[in-house]
Amino acid sequence: MLVNNKGNFSYEAAGVVLIPGTNKVDEKEFEKFLAHPLMAELDQRGEFVYEKGKTFAKDVIALVEDAYDVDMLEAMKDDEDRKTVLEAIDKRIAELKAE
Fold it and tell me: Is the overall model pTM greater than 0.90, yes or no?
């Protein structure tokens, strides 16, 4: 699943590290992450944006646009079949490689 850490800091709990921006995380591991009291509090404050299951293309594109990990974006392409999302992923990868 995709999790957007909207904060300015990386967070680590239960073996999961969320860097600022979009992160790809195993759903069960993320549940363990959120079981930590501090992470649960940050989640309640809206620090993390995520949706379980298949999401609308526009929501996935918003997460892609806030991603900084080229390897994660490349891996996302394997699980995605929507043309608009694939185009957004390719565009973001090109932007990151140009920096």
Answer: no
